[in-house]
Design a protein that fits this description.
alpha/beta; Rossmann fold; Immunoglobulin-like; six-stranded parallel sheet; 20% strand
Length: 382
């Protein structure tokens, strides 16, 4: 089943009780009642990513997810992405990554590549998840978007800003005139917004673009020959972006595998093999790890946020479910991490060392169950 497009504003409206006051039960019932069932499942999957339960998103029907894209013979040819990506982006003006909005591994992966991209000379990073008409990029915060309020997405943005990337949004806010195609307007406006950023920047500026799914397709896609954002950017300029699909391919990870790692199947000329729906439409495909059968699936990707912290009993609510959030002091607009716990579950939060936090637990209707100050000690080097 293809993803049904729901505007970020509509999604934020559906999820408002969760985002604004931690009312996870109210929000879940709201999105569960949506029609058709495909929309309901996709919004529930989004809900689960926000509350740290990627494991439950995977139980829903018809939610797009990564699959193995290689044969047993190919496994030995897979190589770590780090050295490959350094080479392939070296001469690129624009590099584009895509993500599956119902999963979080692409966010974790791109965050792990920021240092390499910064060293290669990239200066700007644009997010479809931010509108183009928001305040100056130096003022952008995860709270200004929707998907950006999910903890690993928030961490990606904060890390990019801390490293000196110029963060900007490029989502279209243009009104749709009578007779216009909403799809055509959105894709063309996204491309125009990115090109405006490029034209306003120094000549040596280089750009990372983080988009959803098909927006990075460089040629017409599907039976309807849809031309997405990347294709329109190429048509409007002399820029040929280097596009990397992160949504299609996965491989079985393990407890010892880094959740932010990636593998690539490249030929002798360092060209990545692309398979599936993006063959001929993107330049490369990175295989991202999927939780193994023995992995703590709730925290497999969230573990990149920090060290596991056991949730104290005083933050629980008898035999009722609770949502536990950790707000890092000095950065309390959105939760640093959060996890939904059903009765009997003992999943941890993941917190960066060296910071103090306020831990707050909420009942289904958003009532505060308990609060607790927590100091996470800095890593001690041997």
């Amino acid at each position: 089943m293809a993803a049904l497009f729901v505007s970020p504003q509509s999604s934020a409206d559906y999820m408002a009780p969760l985002l604004e006051r931690g009312a996870f039960g109210v929000t879940y019932e709201r999105v569960k009642a949506l029609e058709p069932v495909g929309l309901s499942n996709q919004m529930r999957a989004t809900f689960y990513t926000f509350v740290g339960r990627q494991d439950l998103a995977a139980t829903l029907q018809d939610i797009p997810e990564s699959q193995s894209c290689f044969s047993d013979d190919d496994i030995t040819r897979l190589a770590p992405v780090s050295s490959w990506i350094s080479d392939v982006v070296a001469d690129q003006k624009v590099v584009m990554f895509n993500e599956n909005h119902f999963r979080i591994e692409a966010r974790v992966f791109v965050a792990s590549q920021l240092e390499i991209l910064k060293s290669a000379g990239f200066t700007h990073i644009g997010f479809e998840a931010f509108q183009a008409d928001l305040a100056d990029s130096e003022e952008l915060s995860p709270v200004h978007g929707f998907y950006t309020q999910e903890p690993t997405f928030s961490a990606l943005i904060r890390q990019a800003q801390a490293m000196g990337f110029q963060v900007f949004g490029y989502e279209s806010t243009r009104a749709i005139a009578e007779g216009e195609s909403a799809f055509e307007v959105r894709e063309l406006t996204q491309a125009t917004n990115i090109l405006n950023q490029i034209e306003q920047a120094d000549d040596d500026a280089r750009f990372v673009i983080f988009a959803g799914w098909d927006h990075i397709a460089e040629a017409a896609k599907g039976p309807d020959e849809l031309r997405w954002m990347a294709a329109r950017l190429k048509e409007q300029s002399a820029i040929d972006p280097f596009t990397i699909d992160l949504t299609s391919c996965g491989y079985a990870g393990s407890d010892s595998a880094l959740a932010n790692s990636g593998m690539v199947l490249a030929d002798d000329n360092n060209r990545s093999r692309v398979t599936g729906q993006y063959r001929g439409l993107v330049d490369a495909q990175v295989h991202l790890p999927l939780p193994g059968p023995d992995s703590l699936k709730t925290g497999y990707y969230r573990q990149t946020l920090g060290t596991p912290v056991v949730i104290a009993d005083e933050l629980r609510h008898g035999d009722e479910a609770v949502l536990v959030r950790a707000y890092q002091h000095g950065m309390n607009e959105v939760a640093y991490d959060q996890v939904l716990l059903y009765p009997g579950e003992r999943f941890p939060l993941y917190l960066a060392p060296g910071y103090s936090y306020l831990l707050v637990s909420y009942s289904a209707d958003g009532s505060i169950v308990g609060e607790l100050e927590h100091e996470e000690p800095a890593d001690i080097q041997p």
